[in-house]
Amino acid sequence: MFWWLMPVAAAAAGVAAAVAWRSKRRGNVRRRPVAHADRLTALPEYQAALRRYRRWLALAATALALLLVSTAVAAARPVSVDTVRPEQHNRDIMLCLDASGSMSSADAAVVEVFAKLAREFDGERIGLTIFDSSAIQVFPLTDDYAYAQEQLQGAKDAFDGKPGSSGFLDGTWSGRGSSLIGDGLASCLNSFPGAGKPQEASGGGTSSQRSRSVVLATDNLLSGKPIMALGQAAALAKDRSVRVYALNPADLDYGPGPDQPGAQLRAAAESTGGAYYALDRPDAVAGIVTGIEQTETSAIHGAPRAVFADVPGLPLVAALLSALALCVVLWRLQGIRLRSKAWLRRGAIVLLLLAAALRPHLPGGTVQAASADLNVFFVVDTTTSMVAEDYDNGKPRLEGVRKDIMAIAEQLPGARFSVITFDTTAHVRMPLSTDTLALQTITDVLEPQVTAYAKGSSITAARQVLSERLAAARDSHPGRPRLVYYLGDGEQTSGREPGPMKVDGGLVAGGAVLGYGTSAGGWMKENTGLADDGGTDGGGEAGTRSGGYVQDTRPGSNGDALSMIDEGRLQAIAGQLGVPYAHRLAGAPVADMMQQAHPGRAERADGQGQLAAGTELYWILAAGAFLLALPEAVALARQLRGLPRAGLKEEKR
Q1: Burial class (CB in 10 A: 0-12, 13-18, 19+), 333
Q2: What is the overall mean pLDDT for the chain?
Q3: N or C terminus: which one in the chain shows less Cβ crowding within 10 Å?
Q4: Which residues of 255-283 are buried (b: 16+ CB within 10 A; e: fewer)?
Q5: How far apart are alpha carbons 514 and 230 in whole angstroms?
Q6: 566 phi/psi in degrees, rounded to 5
């Protein structure tokens, strides 16, 4: 609240009163004495008219006083303060599933139960990691529940052996051995934000207040030599305040010793503050997982938090009604021509207040916030042309994409981010999540499509996937604005015109289309799909997947192919999405682009960090109405001062 505007408004009103009180000498010069005026003022009709006039002036003064007070209050930006308790919905649950053959039925039951629970989640984040000889993250911690349900259903199909779903487990057999439980649990622990740091130092707003749990489904039948033993992984979980809930469908022990598989798993889970469950049948998972969910809910104790929001509605309505009332009273009182300067001023007051009531705002503002209640979708072109070397003195265009994604994320602390990439087809690389570590990881590993598989692509290939994810986000949280940042070069290589990038109205609240590349163009390194082992064949750096340069195979052409930005197509996409277009150059500050991206309004909360949000303008319009009303106050005060006192005859002039 701009509290300092109140004394300023009071001082301005005082100045107006002083001007009105000062004698109006020039007005007295024009007056002429009239003989026997007391006979006129003594008439009953004159006295009745004077009383009516005085009453109308009193009504006008009341309306004007209310107008001045309400516009001053609105200009000071009144706020409301609400208290929220984030502890009600702040759990992080990572499903950590042993994908070896002996665990298939239990894993299927676990993901089925959590797919159902996800329908009731509101603020909790859920993730899935599967492991055998090596671990892969299916999806990071996210509150995009529609996407989580889709992935959990795919996991269930794979664990149930549904035809065509075997590819889901690819990557879990990359190492030697099987069921390396300690390594698998350690990989799951590294999936939490701020992995490797204590919770209080992990940063990121409210992450330090989130309860963390791992649902570890395994029979603990180790087959191989892990890097980290189960006991070491459990100690790591305890150090990071992560509770481990172990689900063992077999509970196979070959004696009472503490070195038996079930006993080891129990000891590891209970050492973290979690629990161990021996399951004699897979359908028991539902009740146990529900019990874990209830236990975690009661174990959370976060601190209340104050949330501030502008609430100018009441003073603006009062100001508008008082302005209309003032106009009616003055018209009845004075009957001045509507085209006079006075009526133009009064009309301007009403129009300013009407505009203020609409709450206009400009992009590029900032507010103090602990978190941004926004869903942000990055749609990234990963076609071969995005490695054209015309960004920042010969670097690939994807280098600029990586920098801008993380720079935008820094401008929107606490927002939920999703990454969708497209080449021949579109893929969700990361569902909506506040985990900026996962966003950093996804961004770092962005690479173009393998050149051998590139058959031409459309710059709007992600439209269907984007529309589905936007609609799912709207259905899950209707009040949460959705921003879209499209990052690409606009080069269409499919041989036909791209389809429109339009999405349903209201799905996109803001964002931008960001263009990379130059009109002169750049040459493109091939992506062979095979990592080099220190060689630099084809000019690529050691450890990359680069081969030679892409060749121009068009009839009559030869040599290296050249890729150029197509800003016309990018501007067309921006128009279809209803967002601005910006050409990105190396070193250009992201703040300038964010000012054009109208990211929508954002909630203000106590805490650290600046949040991009629409700059409110209503208070400026209210201040303008206040200033225009001051001359009315001076004129009205002079009229009141010039009236004879009640019950006395008008004095001779």
Answers
A1: middle
A2: 79
A3: C
A4: eeeeebbbbbbbebbeebebbbbbbeebe
A5: 46
A6: -120, 90
pLDDT (mean) for 69-86: 74
Q: Strands 416-422 and 375-381, how do they pair?
A: parallel
Integer Cα distance of 513 and 456 in angstroms: 21
Whether 149 contacts 190, CB under 8 Å? no
- For the stretch 589-628, pLDDT in tens is 887 777 766 554 444 443 444 444 456 788 889 999 999 9
Side chain identity, residue 379: V
338 phi/psi in degrees, rounded to 5: -65, -15
Rg (CA), the chain: 35
Stated length of the chain: 653
Cβ contact 342:331 at 8 Å: no
C-alpha torsion sign, points 642, 643, 646, 651 = positive
The C-alpha atoms of residue 565 and residue 520 are separated, in whole angstroms, by 8
Least confident of 146-160, 178-192, 357-371, 579-593: 357-371
Residue 371, both tokens: 């978190």
Angle between helices 261-271 and 230-239 (to 10 degrees): 10
- H or E element that contains 634: helix 618-642
Place of tokens 């085209």: 339
E strand or H helix at 442: helix 436-444
Contacts of 313 by beta carbon, 8 Å cutoff, 6+ apart: none
